[in-house]
Amino acid sequence: MDQSIAFARHVQEIVSAAEGKQTTRDPEVVQSWLRCLNDYKLDPEHKGEARILPQNILRQHQQEAEDLMTIARFGMEDLYRRVNSMGYVLLLTDAKGVTVDFIGDEKVDRELKRAGLYIGSEWSEQNAGTCGVGACLTSGEAIVVHQTDHFDMAHTPLSCTAAPIYHSDGSLIGVLDVSLLMSPTEKYSQALTLEVVKSCVRRIELANLMNSRKSDWILRLNRTSEFLGVDPSCAISVASDGTISGLTHGAHQLFSKAQGVRKFSAQSFVGKPFEEVFDFDFNDIPCLLAAETPGEQALELSDGQVIFADVQAPLRRERAPARSVLPKPLAGIHGGDASMQILAEKAARIVDKQISIILEGETGVGKEYVAKALHASRKKKGPFVAINCAALPEALIESELFGYAPNSFTGANAKGKKGLIEQANGGTLFLDEIGDMPLVLQARLLRVLAEKEVMPVGATKPVPVDIRVISASHRKLKSLVDAGQFRQDLYYRLNGVVLSIPALRDRTDKPWVIRQIAALVSEGSVMRFSKPAEEALLAHDWPGNIREMINVFELCLALSNDGVVGIEDLPENLIPQ
Ligand SMILES: Nc1ncnc2c1ncn2[C@@H]1O[C@H](COP(=O)(O)OP(=O)(O)OP(=O)(O)O)[C@@H](O)[C@H]1O
Description:
Layout: H1 3-18, H2 27-39, H3 55-64, H4 66-83, E1 89-94, E2 99-103, H5 109-115, H6 125-128, H7 132-139, E3 143-146, E4 159-166, E5 172-180, H8 191-212, E6 217-222, E7 234-238, E8 244-247, H9 249-258, H10 274-277, H11 285-289, E9 298-300, E10 306-312, H12 328-331, H13 338-350, E11 357-360, H14 367-376, E12 384-388, H15 394-402, E13 403-404, E14 417-418, H16 420-423, E15 428-432, H17 439-451, E16 453-454, E17 463-464, E18 468-473, H18 477-482, H19 488-494, E19 497-500, H20 510-521, E20 528-529, H21 531-539, H22 545-559, E21 564-565
Parallel strand pairs: 11-18, 11-19, 12-15, 15-18, 20-21
Antiparallel strand pairs: 1-2, 1-5, 3-4, 4-5, 6-7, 6-10, 7-8, 9-10, 13-14, 16-17
Helix pairs in contact: 4-8, 20-22
The protein binds adenosine-5'-triphosphate.
């Protein structure tokens, strides 16, 4: 047919379609023509040249699309091996329609370049009119734009089949297009090509999801159980908190249909709880790993539709909780010593549980300090009551601990008195030097802990108490039990978890401890040490631990000039000979 007649007919067809007249064109092609006329104000009589971007601008697009190019390259090469003998070329464009990667036959390089089937060509609908890439980007769906489907007469020799590529977060990131310079007249000749391109993109998206979500559960999904393991139709990833962290476009379409969502909305399923989409408990996903029959792989979608799932467990464990996730008071008990860090992490795991804790360590290492940090880290705090079992006078110990009823003995307060255990109700009871508690009192304490109530001296009715107990001892309680000085049954009740605080001489964070205690003693004002003084502090073995350090620093502060402590200000036993 004469070129000018063909051109006139093409323009005429577009105009009459725009007027709403009957047409045999596919509706998505007509919709694109209408966008070209009405939205982009393109002129069907104008013959545009294919636009190839200059190198520097192309490079910018390629840099921004680096991830997409890496994701898609293996799929493109595989696809090209299958279709190149039929004359197809492959284009990968970014979300703006710029060809950032290209595979074609070098023998017809010049013709391809002229036709715009080339690296750097720009195929947005606004620029090139109806074309495979442009219509695909605008609609978000795969499409064949065959010969005179093209809006611009310059492109009507081409046949273009394009499928959108979606990121696992749901956003449209590019288009994979296969095009022919010369093709059979009938459009249905490209029906199989469309399926091949869609399947290639499906595998690209799946590989991307599996690669980028290694710490999550991956569920490969199919409507039938056959081919589920080898060629699933779509997939999702689920994070450890039970929310959907990523999905392929096929999964997006499946869920949208199940939930009656018509309008395409990119991110609508990412971040949603797994149970909102499936009628299945997230915590039961591991059970699917052991599925042996298709029936055991079947899941129900929210609309009752059955879908089969092939599950892959997280390949990479999420990193262990960093120090910063410890409750603040516990994170602040050391300055980087490894055994203190382990202690803090262990304590953080049990801090809100009904588990008794024993703190062991030499005198002055900071057992009460750590007990207070434990208490301060609890969600439900209540009061903190400390009892030094070694310092209580024997005669008063019972009434101090358990309290007494009004007028229960001579000299007692007429109103009675709440004991320390009752004062700790709803909070923490810290029993310091528990190893020094007399045996008779140990029996009574055991009853309090077992029955969760105290019987004040002279009272007839017990008082219920809810306390968490932290005990401390500078001697190993187990050896006291072996020596018959501590009740075994009480030891077992107190001994939920033992936390051993290292001696100061064994800690690797001594410079941090020095700074802490200097600030404590000087109450925030200046207290610094000369280099030789600091070296002497670091070399000392601190038998009295942190308490000894506090005493030494108080003395130094009093002797020093303007808060700067020299070696001569240190006590004699600290000065190297
Ligand atoms: N990390 C720290 N920062 C500041 N001060 C601390 C720290 N650790 C302990 N202290 C202080 O050191 C002193 C001794 O600590 P604590 O009384 O907790 O030790 P203890 O092991 O319970 O001693 P004892 O065995 O004699 O009962 C206290 O004044 C405490 O406040």
